[in-house]
Amino acid sequence: QVQLVESGGGLVQAGNSLRLSCAASGFTFSSSFMGWFRQAPGKDREFVALISGSGAHTYYTDSVKGRFTISRDNAKNTVYVQMNSLKPEDTAVYYCAARTNPYATIRANDYNYWGQGTQVTVSS
To answer: Among 25, 23, 19, 10, which residue's Cα sits nearest to residue 93?
Structure first.
């Protein structure tokens, strides 16, 4: 049974940091692309960042480049996103997702498995 469990969300003031974690099980984690997406109230789910199975390749949406860092620990089957210099517009539910096909994509529909999400709220 596949499980993706996010943690680390919360309420922070603008300019502060959070680190989200996503613990995975039930599939071959080390060969899967992992992505972070977010969905703000009234908006579509949007891509945030992805990382290749080895961790060698990462990609970010423009709005988080230089502020967010995605990483993974294949020994722990866990993917992270370190979020620095948070802004109120980063407020959203953050989801991790797994893509078992070995090609990168930012399209949410191309990801096979999803977590339940964790709320991040950034106050001004």
So the answer is: 10
